[in-house]
């Protein structure tokens, strides 16, 4: 079996290249081979590989930059997944794609289910929602996995930014009124491998149903709480003198304005994932511990 993986050098893509290996031959494509900024080129790629599964881990994730110029985000997050889904339908392949909690407006404090009303409050969220809707219209066998607050030991993310800033400054301020579940790329990749395996069995048995599923770590915290855990965990690994930061002050989103508005409530209800695929995601603190150990090992 062949699995076509796009975005193979990204945070989630790198982990997927590992976790999907036991399922078959993984054709891992970076931006040079699978350029989602050129959606018209993707049909030929799918035709040449002839995969049984397509996993799209490529995305435009520069949230603030998308606010100034949404066209590239719309192309990569909207038009390109539509092209891949159409190509998957023609190839008879299962199509797996990733989306985000940013398709919701972040109101209230209850975890959102998959069928909750969508109302993105920034250009990035709108581009990801457009991708979801285009995939559904394509008519292939598809699954969209919405996740939140993704990080890894590689790439640019909140964990690595906090470790850098914590080594440079004695005092930091971090937003405390946005709440969600920090989710490691490793968790996403390992869960995806299980989902793909079971989805292929469902297809073989004629009982596969396309749809959206929420996939994030268990538990919840604020960005401020996440930062505190990062610093505490790093000191436990690298010693109390490994960071300069001594004061971590909580602030509101209003005190840290950004070009793109962020949802205050990023909680996702993952019960459908458990009911269909039997997946019980680990707590976000466990994922963070593993990633900090990886970073420590790299250094």
UniProtKB/TrEMBL annotation:
Gene3D superfamilies: NAD(P)-binding Rossmann-like Domain, UDP-galactose 4-epimerase, domain 1. GO terms for biological process: dTDP-rhamnose biosynthetic process. It holds the Pfam family RmlD_sub_bind. Its EC number is 1.1.1.133. Pathway: Carbohydrate biosynthesis; dTDP-L-rhamnose biosynthesis. It comes from the Bacteria. Its cofactor is Mg(2+). One of its GO terms (cellular component) is cytosol. Residues 1-295 form the RmlD-like substrate binding domain. One of its GO terms (molecular function) is dTDP-4-dehydrorhamnose reductase activity. InterPro entries: dTDP_dehydrorham_reduct, NAD(P)-bd_dom_sf, RmlD-like-bd. Keywords: NADP, Oxidoreductase. The keyword Oxidoreductase applies. It catalyses: dTDP-beta-L-rhamnose + NADP(+) = dTDP-4-dehydro-beta-L-rhamnose + NADPH + H(+). Belongs to the dTDP-4-dehydrorhamnose reductase family. NCBIfam families: PRK09987.1, rmlD. Catalyzes the reduction of dTDP-6-deoxy-L-lyxo-4-hexulose to yield dTDP-L-rhamnose. This is dTDP-4-dehydrorhamnose reductase. It comes from Zeimonas arvi. The lineage of its organism: Bacteria, Pseudomonadati, Pseudomonadota, Betaproteobacteria, Burkholderiales.
